[in-house]
Amino acid sequence: MSSSHAKAPYYFVPGPSKWPVLAGSSLLLTMLGASAWVNGLSWGSYANLAGVFLTLVVLYNWFGDAIAESESGQYSARIDVSYRWSMSWFIFSEVMFFAAFFGALFYARSITMPWLADLDHKVLWPDFSGQWGNAGPAGTIESFKTMGPFPIPTINTALLLTSGVTLTIAHHALRAGQRGKTAFWLFATIVLGAVFMGFQAYEYIHAYHELNLKLTSGIYGSTFFMLTGFHGFHVTMGAIMLSVVLFRVLKGHFTPDHHFAFEGAAWYWHFVDVVWLGLYVVVYWL
Q1: Could you tell me the sign of the dihedral formed by the alpha carbons of 88, 90, 91, 95, in that order?
Q2: Quick one: which of 14, 122, 203, 237 has the fewest CB in 10 Å?
Q3: Cβ neighbours of residue 75 under 8 Å, at least 6 residues apart?
Q4: If phi over 0 gives left and psi between -120 and 50 gives alpha, with beta otherwise, what is residue 40?
Q5: CA atoms of 90 and 144, how far apart (whole Å)
Q6: Which residues cross the membrane (predicted)?
């Protein structure tokens, strides 16, 4: 977060906030509701939706307080450092999150498949080749076609790479004090992200109806949809973050020297870009 006003003394810290406790409580309600919902309990869906609603209310008010504190000059250099470390650790946790799914994909494709197709298992499954993208050796999965890199994944790659460029231009414009240019290129970045999500939605429709590729299509389907689906969720969250930043730019927030809210959202967006490059190569090409 940043302020257009004079910064507070280095060791100054704003008063305690009630929002972290309320956020934890609403998230707990959301997860309990989701667990009950998938297990067929009648109250689960209501609890889950109530938890989601309360979480959104808490985040709206929490971020509103943070913005108000920033714009009133309550954030010292110590708070700025705290935000940078917090965002860095958050992105690191996201790296580990995606590393788990990439690791599952590697294990299934490079270790499990060859193992199931070796000579020791030919007695059980003599016709199983172990080639990636199959329905498994047991014959319990409906046949499906795999997703290739053309044309939509390649178009989406170009969209995200371009969005990284437009966001960098917006950042340089903000540092140069060019607010109008900052808003234009930031808006262009958000539009590119929205177009990316539109293409991904179309890709999912194509996968379900024309390729018969579903989340239940064995290990290939589950890893494909978990990786691309969670990435799409992160693109959506990144676009929301950039939209909030754009709104603040239009309201006159930020200065060329103090604009960490912009920087934090930009870090997150570039992280999403890098994850997609890995997905594009590992999921669609290999």
Answers
A1: positive
A2: 122
A3: 1, 2, 3, 7, 8, 14, 69
A4: left
A5: 37
A6: 46-68, 89-108, 150-170, 182-202, 222-247, 267-285
Side-chain-side CA neighbours of 43 within 13 Å: the count stands at 3
CA angle at residue 160 from 157 to 162, to 5 degrees?
105
Percentage of residues in the chain having pLDDT higher than 90: 71
Is the pLDDT at 67 greater than 70? The verdict is yes
What distance in Å separates the CA atoms of residue 243 and residue 250, rounded to the nearest whole number?
Answer: 11
**Whole-number mean pLDDT of the chain?**
90
Return the higher-pLDDT residue of 159 and 257.
159
Say whether pLDDT at 3 is over 60.
no
The DSSP element (H or E) to which 112 belongs, if any, is: none
Q: Which helix (H) or strand (E) holds 159?
A: helix 152-175
Confidence of residue 1 (pLDDT cuts 50, 70, 90): very low
Q: Where would I find the beta strands (DSSP E) of the chain?
A: none
The string of pLDDT tens digits covering residues 204-239 is 999 999 999 999 898 999 999 999 999 999 999 999
Distance CA 114, CA 276 (A): 27
64 vs 54: CA distance, rounded Å: 15
Res. 255: pLDDT tops 80: yes
**For residue 223, which of 132, 161, 140, 157 has the smallest C-alpha distance?**
132
- C-alpha closest to that of 48 among 64, 34, 27, 63: 34
d(CA 54, CA 191): 28
The torsion angles phi and psi of 176, rounded to 5 degrees, stand at -90, 0
Task: Answer whether 0.85 is exceeded by the pTM.
Answer: yes
The Cβ-side half-sphere exposure at 282, using a 13 Å CA radius, reads 23
Structure tokens at 106: 């590697």
